[in-house]
Specification:
This protein is mainly alpha-helical and 134 residues long. It has a single domain, classed as Four Helix Bundle (Hemerythrin (Met), subunit A). Helices cover 78% and strands 0% of the residues. It contains four helices and no strands. Helix 1 packs antiparallel against helix 4 and helix 2 packs antiparallel against helix 3. The chain is elongated. 18% of the residues are buried. The structure holds fe (ii) ion (2 copies). The site of one fe (ii) ion (FE2) has 6 residues, from helix 3 and helix 4.
Length: 134
């Protein structure tokens, strides 16, 4: 898995684009650590970093939406909530130190595809809205 983040995913809001780029870097790090499969603690550590970064990132977008009275705020926030619930479920699955390989693959697929889809379908619309406000 390499270069998940491409110009196609830019929403042209500088700090949001930078957060997306950074999150994909962590996803790629997570993926290669999973593939390497040797260091369970490191896998969990990266997973937690990823979860924290996503939490912060969603908060940034939600703050923008509230500040500029974005009409699709509720729908967008709901998508973030669903994302976080899924992360929470994965986090619980990883608790106790036993990490099934299938769960790791599920996590990777979720991060890569789920996040790409979210950005191109949902965040891009927010980007368009914010472009003439910022
Ligand atoms: Fe979003
Ligand atoms: Fe986003």
């Amino acid at each position: 898995m390499a270069n998940l983040f491409t110009d196609r995913l830019l929403i042209h809001v500088e700090d949001i684009d930078e957060q997306h780029r950074r999150i994909f870097e962590i996803v790629e790090e997570f993926y290669s650590e999973c593939m390497n499969g040797k260091n369970k603690d490191r896998i969990l550590e990266i997973f937690r970093v990823l979860k924290g970064s996503l939490e912060e990132h969603f908060k940034s977008e939600e703050d923008y939406m509230v500040t500029y009275s974005y009409p699709e705020y509720e729908v967008h926030k709901e998508r973030h909530n669903i994302f976080m619930l899924k992360l929470q479920a994965l986090d619980s699955a990883f608790k106790g130190g036993f990490i099934p390989f299938t769960k790791l693959m599920e996590a990777n697929e979720f991060f890569a595809e789920g996040f790409v889809t979210h950005i191109s379908d949902i965040d891009s619309r927010l980007g368009e809205f914010l472009r003439d406000k910022l």
